């Protein structure tokens, strides 16, 4: 996320943008590190860990993307007002 | 398989099929615009779709009938390895969150209909744009063919596919009818038809999954039993390979494959023309960002659907062709009428993406081959006319493909298509963020990626096939088994970067960039952005 084309004198990297980037990167780390979840236990209602864990990540990544979306909106609003 | 035709299921199936046919033709009048003879109208639904329509359209587009049949089929066949579709669709959304809004903005500002339009505008290179367009068309054709394979699977299980001995015409007649109808309403209504039908498709799919995931485990004695039986089945030795059939959890050696398949597929998904067509039809930048937060609902559904593969094993479904496992599970477990609903969901699930894919391929041909190379002064009316005709041709081609060739050919080409389409990533996504890459370097990188990917895929053997036996192979230099598409993509990027340095050093001429930095963040309502709707609806970013 390095979009700051029309941006004013504000720095490109702000703490809020770091949080946005982390929210978007986290699913990649979690899902590509297959070794961290390639096991059957603990099972959840009979479903092996491998499966329910990844499905749980569907929800987690959705929440993270939503947070990124809200923060990005706030960031852009602040920039627009700052530019005026 | 029960003998003969399942009458009740067939009647329900035909009912839903007729319903969507009527909707498909009526769709031409839905949100009708004044200038209906433009490619924006026919091919992008007037660029007017809001959050929910876009959600249904993209969901209907990306999660195809083939997905519904193939993902559980892969689980049924080999277990854990088939589940990569779930991390794959998880990774797609954070990824598109970063680049798709930029593509939307620049496309709206300059009236781009396809990704190749953008590439030509950004790099001033018709050659690069042609490469992207051809890759898109090549990758889409087998994908359409696979939708037909999905319909065929359903028809077979319902008993209307005919046996091996039936006359070919009788055997394929239902498929021909389904396709004729699809072609007719796509021709007349354009993107509006699949957008409207997607509502029916997704509603049916959600109902079927919800029922299946509760009802079937109860009948089979709970998930504990299902997974115990599946585990036992995977442990048995496959006589063809001498190795166990599969595993509940990927073994150490399979983890690289799993991760690279998920990542490579995620990178590739929004390079497909049909994904972009559905994206560009949305009315504002915010619609896309908002959609990345609600589309994962489909991924959850896909995960649940994948579990049906285990249920098919536990229910003792035995099929030679894995594609039939899920339709067969439905027929065995559900009462006839609900099996009909489930089959209708899969059948209609094939029609929506097939329509969008044929429109997307037609747009590519019209804009980036016909207009760029054959008739540069084509009017919008002519463009629309050509696009409509090509959408028909593309579908007839796909039909001929399925009817004349073995199913495995379509599957092989689909596999190749995924590898190929990923090679357009550097030009498209790279171009959205930077102009640093040189157009010739991008073209060379693309060529290297295409060549490596094709040759590598050709060399993969499986117990049943000598070539194109799978999509993963040893990664040179790392030694692990990984997705060929991703290896080709890395090669592609390396070649592009190195050649860009070289070309910049020798001051090779750059193309003309017609875009400006602010175009990439423009939203509906900004000056110069074409808006067909009253500004009141133009996004919430203001």
UniProtKB/TrEMBL annotation, chain A:
Keywords: Membrane, Transmembrane, Transmembrane helix. This is DUF3311 domain-containing protein. It comes from the Bacteria. The chain crosses the membrane at residues 18-38, 50-72. It comes from Streptomyces olindensis. Pfam families: DUF3311. PANTHER family: BSL5891 PROTEIN (PTHR40034). The keyword Acetylation does not apply. The keyword Membrane applies.
UniProtKB/TrEMBL annotation, chain B:
The keyword Hydrolase does not apply. The gene is mctP. NCBIfam families: monocarbox_MctP. The chain crosses the membrane at residues 6-28, 49-69, 75-100, 128-148, 168-187, 199-218, 256-273, 294-317, 337-365, 386-405, 411-433, 440-461, 481-503. It comes from the Bacteria. It is found in: Membrane. It comes from Streptomyces olindensis. Belongs to the sodium:solute symporter (SSF) (TC 2.A.21) family. This is Monocarboxylate uptake permease MctP.
């Amino acid at each position: 996320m390095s979009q700051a084309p029309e941006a004013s004198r504000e720095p490109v990297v702000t703490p809020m943008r770091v949080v946005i980037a982390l929210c978007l990167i986290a699913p990649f780390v979690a899902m590509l590190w297959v070794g961290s979840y390639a096991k059957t236990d603990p099972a959840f209602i009979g479903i092996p860990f491998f499966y329910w864990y990844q499905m749980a990540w569907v929800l987690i990544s959705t929440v993270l993307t939503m947070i990124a979306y809200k923060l990005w909106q706030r960031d852009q609003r602040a920039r627009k007002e700052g530019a005026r | 398989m029960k003998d003969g035709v399942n009458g009740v299921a067939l009647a329900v199936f035909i009912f839903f099929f007729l319903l969507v046919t009527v909707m498909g033709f009526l769709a031409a009048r839905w949100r009708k615009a004044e200038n209906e003879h433009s490619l924006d109208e026919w091919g992008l639904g007037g660029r007017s779709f809001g959050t929910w329509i876009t959600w249904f359209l993209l969901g209907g587009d990306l999660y195809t009938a083939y997905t519904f049949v193939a993902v559980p089929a892969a689980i049924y066949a080999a277990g854990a390895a088939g589940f990569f579709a779930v991390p794959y669709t998880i990774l797609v959304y954070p990824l598109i969150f970063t680049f798709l809004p930029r593509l939307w903005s620049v496309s709206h500002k300059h009236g781009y209909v396809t990704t190749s339009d953008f590439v030509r505008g950004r790099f001033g290179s018709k050659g690069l744009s042609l490469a992207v367009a051809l890759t898109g068309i090549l990758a889409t054709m087998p994908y359409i063919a696979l939708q037909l394979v999905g319909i065929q699977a359903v028809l077979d299980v319902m008993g209307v596919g005919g046996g091996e001995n039936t006359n070919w015409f009788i055997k394929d007649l239902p498929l021909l009818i389904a396709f004729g109808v699809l072609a007719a309403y796509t021709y007349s209504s354009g993107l509006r038809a699949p957008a409207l039908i997607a509502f029916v498709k997704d509603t049916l799919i959600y109902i079927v999954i919800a029922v299946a995931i509760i009802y079937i485990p109860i009948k089979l004695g709970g998930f504990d039993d299902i997974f115990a039986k599946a585990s036992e089945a995977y442990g048995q030795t496959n006589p063809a390979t001498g190795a166990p059939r599969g595993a509940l959890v990927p073994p150490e050696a399979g983890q690289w494959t799993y991760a690279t398949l998920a990542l490579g597929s995620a990178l590739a998904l929004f390079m497909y023309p049909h994904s972009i067509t559905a994206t560009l039809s949305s009315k504002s930048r915010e619609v896309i960002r908002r959609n990345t937060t609600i589309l994962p609902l489909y991924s959850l559904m896909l995960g649940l659907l994948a579990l049906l593969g285990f249920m098919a094993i536990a229910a003792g479904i035995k099929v030679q062709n894995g594609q039939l496992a899920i339709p067969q599970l439905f027929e065995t477990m559900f009462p006839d009428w609900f099996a009909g609903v489930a089959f209708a969901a899969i059948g209609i699930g094939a029609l929506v993406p097939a329509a969008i894919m044929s429109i997307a391929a037609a747009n590519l041909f019209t804009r980036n081959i016909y207009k760029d190379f054959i008739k540069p002064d084509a009017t919008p009316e002519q463009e629309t006319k050509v696009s409509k005709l090509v959408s028909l041709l593309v579908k007839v081609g796909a039909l001929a493909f399925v009817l004349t060739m073995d199913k495995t050919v379509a599957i092989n080409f689909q596999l190749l298509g995924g590898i190929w389409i990923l090679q357009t990533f550097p030009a498209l996504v790279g171009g959205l963020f930077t102009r640093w890459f040189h157009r010739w370097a991008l073209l060379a990188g693309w060529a290297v990626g295409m060549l490596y990917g094709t040759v590598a895929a050709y060399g993969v053997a499986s117990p049943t096939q000598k070539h194109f036996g799978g999509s993963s192979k040893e990664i040179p230099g790392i030694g692990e088994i990984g997705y060929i598409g991703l290896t080709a993509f890395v090669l592609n990027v390396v070649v592009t970067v190195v050649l860009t340095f070289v070309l910049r050093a020798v001051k090779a001429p750059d193309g003309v960039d017609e875009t400006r930095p602010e175009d990439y963040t423009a939203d509906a309502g900004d000056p110069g952005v074409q808006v067909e709707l009253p500004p009141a609806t133009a996004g919430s970013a203001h």
